[in-house]
Amino acid sequence: MDRRLGKFMIVAISVAAIVAFIWISNGLVKELAAQERERMDIWAKATQRLAKANVDSDFEFLLDIISANNSIPVLVTDNKGNISEFRNFSLPDKEDADKSLYADLSERNREYLSKRLSKALDGRDLKSVSRSNNHFIEVEMGQGAEQYIYYEDSSLLKSLSLYPYIQMTVTIILAVILYAALVYTKRAEQNRVWVGLSKETAHQLGTPISSLMAWSQYLETLGIDRDVTAEIDKDVKRLSIIADRFSKIGSLPEMQLEYINETVGRSLDYMKGRVSGRVSINMHLSDDDHGVRLSRPLIEWVMENLTKNAVDAMQGVGRIDITTGADHNIAWIEVKDTGKGIARKHFKTIFNPGYTTKKRGWGLGLTLVKRIIEEYHGGRIFVKESEPGVGTTFRIELRTV
Questions:
Q1: pTM of the full predicted structure?
Q2: C-alpha to C-alpha distance for 218 and 229, rounded to whole angstroms
Q3: What is the CA angle 119-122-125, rounded to 5?
Q4: pLDDT at 165
Q5: What is the spatial distance between Cα 66 and Cα 46, in angstroms, rounded to a whole number?
Q6: What would the DSSP string read from start to end of 258-313?
Q7: Quick one: which of 331, 332, 330, 251 has its CA closest to 298?
Q8: Is 339 exposed, middle or buried (0-12, 13-18, 19+ CB in 10 A)?
C-alpha cells in the first residue's frame, strides 16, 4: 500500500506541476498576444493618420511609430489583397532583407509572402475575415479607399507558446528519471540485503553442519544403528545443499547444460517423501527432454519452493500437477495446484518481498523464486491462471540451448 501511495504521489505532483506550468504560461501567452494586438492597433492608426496627414501633421512622430515595429511580421494590402508593404518576415532570399516594398522583392520572395497571406485568408475575402480574425485589421484611408493589415505572432510569442509543452516534456522526463532512480536505489538496497542475509545464513549454517557430520561419525563408533546415522547423514547432506544454495545468492551461479525433465524429476522425488500422503504430486513430463543452461541447485530450490507453496495453499490436502514442455526455443514448467487460489489483482504483488497470506512466514519464497528465474537465468515466471477456491497455475519459461 505504501509503494502504491508513493507512486501516486509522484504522479500527482508531476501532473500538478505540469498543469501549473501550462496555466501560467498560457496566461503569459494571452497577455503578450493582447499587447501585440494593441501595438498593431496603434501601428494601424499611425498608418491611417500618415495617409491622411496634412502639412501640419507630425510626420516624424508617425514614422517613428511605424518604424518602431521590429519584431511583429506585418503585411499591408489593398482591398483586393494586393500586397504593398511588409515588415519583419524572414524571406527565402536574404538579399531582400533590408527592403520593405513588395514590388522591390525578388519573384521568389513575392511568391513566399503571397502564400503566407493566402494561407491566412483560407479562401475568404478580406472584409469578412477582418471581422472574425484578430490578425486582420481594416484601415480606412479616406475617399473610400481601404487597406488591410495582416500580422503574425512575433517569434517571442511563438516561442512562449511552445514553452509549456517543452516544460511538460522536461517535467515528464525528470519524473521518469526520478522514479527510475528511486526504483534502482530501492532495488540495489534490496539486493544488498538479499546478498548479506544469504551469505550470513550460509556462513552460520557451516558450523552446525560440520558439527553434525562429526557427531554422526562419532555415533557410528558407539555402535548406534546404521539406519539411524544414515538418516542423520541425509539431513546433514540436505543442510549442506541449502547452505550451498544460499552461498550462491549475490554471485553469478555456474551455469551448465541440464535437462528440464531430469532436473524437475530430481527435485520432486525429494519433495514426495516429505509432504502429506493426502497430497498427490503428479508429473506430466514431455516426451522430448529439453536442454537449458541453468544452475541445477537453484532450479531445484525453485521447484521445492513452488511445491511447498502449493501444499500450504491446499492446507495439506489436494493435487499438484507438474507439466513440462517447449514452444519454439522456450522450455516451460507449469506447477498447478487445487488450493485456495489468488485474486487477479495480486498476480504480480505476490512476488513482492514481504507479501504472504500465511500467519507465519516472511513472504520471501516467491521473491527468491522470481530472482533466481529472471535475474540469474534470464527467464520468466508468472501466474498463468488462478481462481479463488479452485487453484493456481505458475508457469516458468527458460530459453533452450
A1: 0.51
A2: 10
A3: 115
A4: 79
A5: 7
A6: EEHHHHHHHHHHHHHTTS-TTEEEEEE--SS--EEEE-HHHHHHHHHHHHHHHHHH
A7: 251
A8: buried
Reported as a single tens digit per residue, the pLDDT across 66-87 is 777 788 888 888 888 888 888 8
Element (H, E) at 141: strand 136-142
Bridge partners of 74, per DSSP, are 87, 151
Which residues are CB-contacts of 70 (< 8 A; sequence separation ≥ 6)?
87, 88
Longest CA span, the chain: 136
Do residues 120 and 150 make contact, with C-beta atoms less than 8 angstroms apart? Answer: yes
**Distance in angstroms (rounded) separating the CA atoms of residues 371 and 380:** 10
Question: Which residues lie closer than 8 Å to 245 by C-beta, 6 or more apart?
Answer: 297, 298, 301
The residues, ordered by sequence, that sit 6+ positions from 133 with a Cβ below 8 Å of its Cβ are 120
283, three cell numbers: 508429473
Q: What is the pLDDT of residues 123-170, one digit of tens each?
A: 888 888 877 777 888 887 766 678 888 888 888 888 888 877 787 788
Least Cα distance to 82 among 65, 69, 101 occurs for 101
Q: How far apart are CA 338 and CA 313, in angstroms?
A: 8
Task: Return the pLDDT at 399.
Answer: 92
- The pLDDT, as a whole number, for residue 99 is 83
Write phi, then psi, for 43 (nearest 5 degrees). Answer: -65, -40
Amino acid at 368: L
